[in-house]
Design a protein that fits this description.
The complex is a heterodimer of chains A (203) and B (192). Chain A is mainly alpha-helical and 203 residues long. Chain A contains eight helices and four strands, in the order H-H-H-H-H-H-H-H-E-E-E-E. The radius of gyration of chain A is 40 Å and the shape is elongated. Chain B contains nine helices and no strands. In chain B, helix 7 packs across helix 9. Chain B has two domains: 86 residues, RNA polymerase sigma factor, region 2, helix turn helix motif (Rna Polymerase Sigma Factor, Chain: A), CATH 1.10.1740; 90 residues, Orthogonal Bundle (Arc Repressor Mutant, subunit A), CATH 1.10.10.10. Helix content of chain B is 71%, strand content 0%. With 192 residues, chain B is an all-alpha fold. The longest helix of chain B has 24 residues. Classes of the chains: A mainly alpha (203), B mainly alpha (192).
Chain lengths: 203, 192
Amino acid sequence: MAECSEISLLLGAFEDSELEPNEMQEVAHHLARCDSCTAMLADYSTIGRGLRTIAPEPILAGFAAAVTARIDALPQPLPARIRRRTARWWRGSGDIFGSGFAWGTGAVAVAVLTILLTTPYARRYAARRLAPAGSAVSHEVAKLEEGVAAVPEALAQRDSGTQAVMAEDSQAIISRLEAEMPSVAVWSEPQSDTTVIWLPDQP
Amino acid sequence: MRTPGRQDGDEAELIDRARNGDSEAFGVLVERYQRRVVGVALAVVKNQDDAIELAQETFVRAFENLKNFESRSSFSTWLYRIAANLSIDFWRREGRHVILRGEDAQSEIDRLPSLQGDSFKAVSRSELSERLKNALEQLTPEHRAVILLREVEGLSYDEISETLQCPRGTVMSRLHYARTHLRTILQDLSVN
């Protein structure tokens, strides 16, 4: 049987249920026969209850608001401030109109932007807008458009290894593309529902 | 009181939002843990005003360092650790007490008389409370902290170990010392 001196070291952890199962069993076995260790355990229990009794209940009124105020007063980088304001606006709009409206508005905005940025009209328009008249870029754009206009003729004239299978509904389905030439351009022309393969003249 | 542990989905979402600068989401976390964070600070510094100030500072530091928080660990224990570090630093700056460490603390335990019997039966509850307050004053911050974190805040030994950044064995020995010391003081008072 374990001595009181050994068991007394484990009494606190026994009270806290922090011993291994075999140690719990050993202490319990000892306590069943030892009045002094049982009394010590009772004292520990009394001390624990007393400590919980005297622990002051902190006054927490306004605590969270004070923390938030201190956080808001922190110097923050601009992106963080923008994110926080956006988050507040987003939550605010959700409160006013309901979160469904806010999410719907966001989804529509994203869809419109995606359509605008992915259609050839928008790309062409953007290229024109971005390239000042007379600049090298605008010159290239004009050249490209001339190239598009000249494609039917070029297709008629070319007699190389390039093979394209054209569907009868005027939409091109390219099943195979072969060319000895190093550069071949392919693009869609939505106005006429055709896909154009442009082969530059041989040097 | 909320059981500390790994954060649930709701808490993880609040932490993510707070990471992105959402102070209102962080406010929810503050409401959730303010009581215990103040309790951790109170376990070390005694004075309630100091404890509340330190707890507020804990949350501000936590907000600033959320990017360093690894979600694998418990958010609550991370908060308690910040609170404990700030409180211990504060207490050391104040320099009001002598800290017993290692062998010194053990020799203090060895000097304690052997105790037997249920010591406090004859003591009224209010008297016992008063004596306990005085007895707590005589503990070092380390011993005071472990006994209060265990008995008042209900932290497990592992949580105390993580909060105070000391081995579990040290938690056990400090708890043993604190309990034995408190019992001795109270028993002496009962006899007198």
